[in-house]
Amino acid sequence: MSSRIEQIIEEIEEYIDSCKFQPLSTTKIIVNKDQMDELLRELRMKTPDEIKRYQKIIANKDAILADAQAKADSMLEQAQVHTNELVSEHEIMQQAYAQANEIVMAATEQAQQILDNATSDANDIRIGAIQYTNDLLANAENIIGHTLDSYTTKYDGLVSSLQECYETVHRNREELEIPERSSNGLESEFGSVSEDMM
C-alpha cells in the first residue's frame, strides 16, 4: 500500500500532465496556483510523518540486534550448564569434555549466525528506509523546483513586458509638443486652429 506522500506526488504529476501549455511553447505550462499550493501544503504536512515512521523502522534495528544477542546468550548459557553437568560425571569425563566442546562450538556458530543475519536484516531495513525517504524528498524537490522555474519564467516575462510598455509611453510623452496657453485660455488656441483649418 502506497503512502499518502506517494499519492500526493502522483496527484501533482497527474495535475502537471493535465495542465495546458502556454501559447507558442511546448515546455512551459499554465498552472492553477491555488490548486498547486494546496497539494504542496499537504505534501509539507505529510513529509515529517513519513520521515518519523521510517526513523522508527531504523530504530527497530537495535531491538533486532538486542533480541539476537539475548538468544545467543541464552544458548551459550544452556550449553555451559550442559557442559558442567557432563563434566561432573567422573566416569564419562573425557566424553563430557568432547561433547561440551562440540556443544559450545555449535552454539557459538549458531549465535554468530543469528547476529550476522540480524545485523544484515537491520542494515537492509535502514538502507531501504533511507533510500525510500530520499526518493520521496527527491520527487518533491523536483516538482517544487519545476514549479519555481515556471513561476520565475512567467514573472520575468511579465516584468520585461511592463518595462517595454513603460519605455514606449515615456518616449511618446517626450515626443509630444504641448502648446502654450494664451491669455484667452484654450478656447483661443482652438479657435485659431479652427480658423487655420478653414
Report the structural category.
mainly alpha
Question: What Rg, in angstroms, do the CA atoms define?
Answer: 40 Å
Q: Biggest sheet, open or closed, and with what strands and sense?
A: none
Number of strands: 0
What share of the residues lie within helices? over 70%
Q: Please report the number of helical segments.
A: 4
Shape: rod-shaped
> Segments where pLDDT lies below 50 for 5+ residues?
186-198
Describe the structure.
The structure is a single chain. The protein has helices spanning 4-18, 33-87, 93-175, 186-197. The chain is mostly helical. α2 runs antiparallel to α3 (93-175). The N and C termini lie far apart (89 Å). Mean pLDDT is 79; it is low at 186-198.
Please outline the helices and strands.
Layout: H1 4-18, H2 33-87, H3 93-175, H4 186-197
Helix pairs in contact: 1-2, 1-3, 2-3
Summarize this, please?
This protein has 198 residues and is mostly helical.
List keywords for this structure.
198 residues; mainly alpha; 4 helices
